[in-house]
Amino acid sequence: MPAADLAWLLAAFALVLLMFPGLALFYGGMTSSKNALNMIMMVLSTLGIASVLYVLLGHSMVSGDSLGGLGLIGNPVEYLGFAGVHDDAGSGGPENVFWAAFFILFAAITIAIVASGAAGRMKFSAWLVFAPVWLTLVYFPLAHWVFAADDEEAGVTGGWMLNSLELHDYAGGTAVHMNAGVAALALALVLGKRRNQAERPHSLPLVVLGAGILWFGWMGFNGGTAGGANFLAQYVILTTLLAGAAGMAGFCLVERLRDGHATTLGLASGMISGLVAITPSADAVNSIGALLVGFAGGAVVAWACTWKKKLGIDETLDAFAVHGVGGIVGTVCVILFAASDAPAGLTGILFGGSWDIVWREIVAITVTCVYSFGMTYLIAWALDRTMGLRVDDETELEGLDVTVHAESAYDFERGSRMGTGLAATATPGPSGAAAEPGTSGASQSSPAAT
C-alpha cells in the first residue's frame, strides 16, 4: 500500500476512535446529572465488547464467505480468532488487517448508539449481556448484507443487499444508523417509560462539545471508507462538511417555526442529523445535493422528535429520530438527488434517472428496519423475562451513577463542605450577607437558589 494511503487510513481510524468519547459526552450531557456517568460507561463499554467479539467471530460473520452462498451470514469460523487476518496480501490496497480494525469501530459505534434508548433505567449488568447478543444476532448479519462484497476470483460470496439487491449505501446508512435508531426504539419500548420524564439535559455545553467531536470523527468515518488518500476521500469529506452544516439550519428552522425559537440542543441535534443523512449518499451527490440532504435530514428529524413525543414514546435521547429517521432520509436522498457527475455515478429520479433505483433502496430500508426492530425487541424481551433489564424504582429515582457505580459526575456536596469557591472569599454586603467579589451585595439569582 502506498505510504500516503496508509497514513490517511491510520489517521481516519484515529478520527473514528475519537467518536466514542464524543458520543459519550454527547449522550452524557443529554441525561440528568445523576445518570451521566452511567450513560458514558454504557457508550464506552461497547468498544471493549465489540473488540473482543469481533476477534472471536464478528469478522468471520461480517466479511467471511457467505454460508451456502445465500448472502445472509458469513462463515463464523473462517477468521476465528482473526486467523489469517494479519497476513500481508501484497495487493497494494487496504489489507484485511485494516478493514478488520476499521469495522470493529463501526460495530462498536452502532451498539453505542443503541445504548441511548436505555438511558437512566437499564441495569448495567444487563447491558453487558444485551450488547454482545445484539451484535451477534442483529449487527453482524446486517453488516454482512451491506458491506461484504462478492469476490469471483476467490470464489467468495458476499451479502445479498450489496451484491444481489445492488443497494447503494456508501458508509452505513442502513447497517449502522437505521439499524441503531430502530433498535434503540425497540429497546426503549421493552424497558418502558422513565419514572420521571421531566428530566432535562444537565449540560448543554457537553452536548455541543460531544457533537463537535463527532463531526470531527465523521470525517474519518466517511473519508476512511474511501480506502485511501484519493479523490473519493476528498469528495466525501466535502459533502460531509456541507451536510452537517445544512442539518443545523434545517433543524433550527423547524424549531423556530414550531416553537418560536431555535435551541442549542436543536443545533447540535441538527448537525448530527445532517451527518447521518449524508452517510449513505456522500459519494452520490454533488455539493448542492449535499446541502439538500443535510437540510432534509435536519428538518425531518426535528419533525420526527415532535411526532414521537405525541405518540408517548419515551426513547430518551432521540436516537430513533436522529439515526433511524435520519438514515432513512439519507437513503431516500440517494433516490432523489444522486448526481451522475458524483463518484458513485448514479442518477437520481429528479435528474431523469431510472426508477429502478427506487425499489432497491426501499427494499433495503424496509428489511433493515423490520429485521432490526423485530430481533432487538425479541432479544430485549427474552432477557427481560430471564434476568430482568430494568433497575428498581428506588435506584432509578436516586440515579444510576451513585447506586450502580458508586460515584457521581459532580461532587457538589464536597464543594460546600470545603467552603471553596466564590462564596468562601465573598465579603459581607450591607445586610451582613456574603456578596460576590465585585458586587454591591444586592440579591442575585443563582442555580443553587433556584
Helix content: 55-70%
Question: How many helices in DSSP terms?
Answer: 16
Strand order of the largest sheet: 1-2
Q: Please give the number of β-strands.
A: 2
Instruction: Report low-confidence residues grouped into runs of 5 or more.
Output: 416-450
Mean pLDDT: 90
Give helix and strand order, one letter per element, not per position.
HHHHHHHHHHHHHHHHEE
Main beta-sheet strand count, sense and barrel state: 2 strands, antiparallel
Notes on the protein architecture:
The protein is mostly helical and 450 residues long. The protein is 63% helix and 1% strand. The protein is built from 16 helices and 2 strands. A two-stranded antiparallel sheet has the order 1-2. Strand 1 (427-428) and strand 2 form a beta hairpin. Helix 1 (3-30) runs parallel beside helix 3 (96-114) and helix 7 packs antiparallel against helix 8 (231-259).
Summarize the entry for a quick read:
The protein has 450 residues and is mostly helical. Helix content is 63%, strand content 1%. The protein has helices spanning 3-30, 36-63, 96-114, 124-147, 160-163, 173-191, 204-224, 231-259, 264-278, 287-310, 319-337, 356-386, 393-398, 400-405, 412-418, 422-425; strands at 427-428, 434-435.
Short key terms for the protein model shown above:
single chain, 450 residues, mainly alpha, two-stranded antiparallel ribbon, 16 helices, 2 strands, 63% helix, globular, disordered C terminus
